[in-house]
Amino acid sequence: MKTIRSFISVPLAPLITAGAAKLIKKLKPFDEGIKWVPLDNFHLTLKFLGEVDNTEVPTICNRLREIAEDYDPFELSFAGMRAMPSGQRPRILSVKVADESGSLVQLVGELETSMADLGFKQEPRDYVPHLTLGRTRSNTRRVSEAVIAEMERLGDYHLGEQVVDEIQLMASFLDKGGPTYQTMDTIEL
Prior knowledge:
- By secondary structure, this protein is of the alpha+beta class.
- It has a single domain (3-188), classed as Alpha-Beta Complex (Cyclic Phosphodiesterase, Chain: A).
- It is 26% helix and 39% strand.
- It is built from 4 helices and 9 strands.
- The chain has helices at residues 14-27, 57-68, 103-117, 145-153; strands at 3-10, 34-36, 44-53, 74-84, 92-98, 130-136, 158-164, 166-175, 178-188.
- A 5-stranded antiparallel beta sheet has the order 2-6-5-4-7.
- A hairpin with a 7-residue loop joins strand 4 (74-84) and strand 5 (92-98).
- Helix 2 runs antiparallel to helix 3 (103-117).
- The longest helix is centred in the middle third of the chain and has 15 residues, at 103-117.
- It is globular and about 45 Å long.
- The two termini are 31 Å apart.
C-alpha cells in the first residue's frame, strides 16, 4: 500500500490563470517574503483529503461521480483581492471568487459530508471560495504594509468568469521546489 497526498479541485480556465499571473506580476515588486503560486499550480481547492491510501482512490472517484451527477455546470467570477485570515493579520494573498448560483458552496458542503462518510476529516470552518496567489514563507511572518497598500489599490482587479463543468481528484507531491500536482481523475458535472 502507498499513500498519496490528495485534494479535490476545480481546474482553472487559461483566462483565469493568465489573469492571476498578471496580478502576481503587479504585486511582486512589493514582495517581502511571499512565496507565490507557480503558474502550473493554480487551481480552486474544494476539499483537502490529506494522505490517501492508493487502494481508496477508486472509491473516492466513484463517490465524486455520484455527487457530480446532481450538478449542472455553473459560473464563477474571479475579482477583488482578499487577505487571509484577515486584513489585520494577512498570511495568504488571494482573489475573491463569487458564486452567484450558490452551486460551489453547496458542492463543497456535499463533498465534506460524503468524504467524512469515507473517513476523511471534515473542515471545521465554513468554505470561503478564493484563489490563492501567494503566502508568507513562515507562519510568524506577515505581509508587508507595501503589499497591503498595493492590494488595496488593486482591490477590484477582475480576472474574469469561468464555467465550472468538472472537478478533479489531484495528487500532490512535495519537492524541494514546492508542490507539484498530478490529475488522478477528472469528473464532469
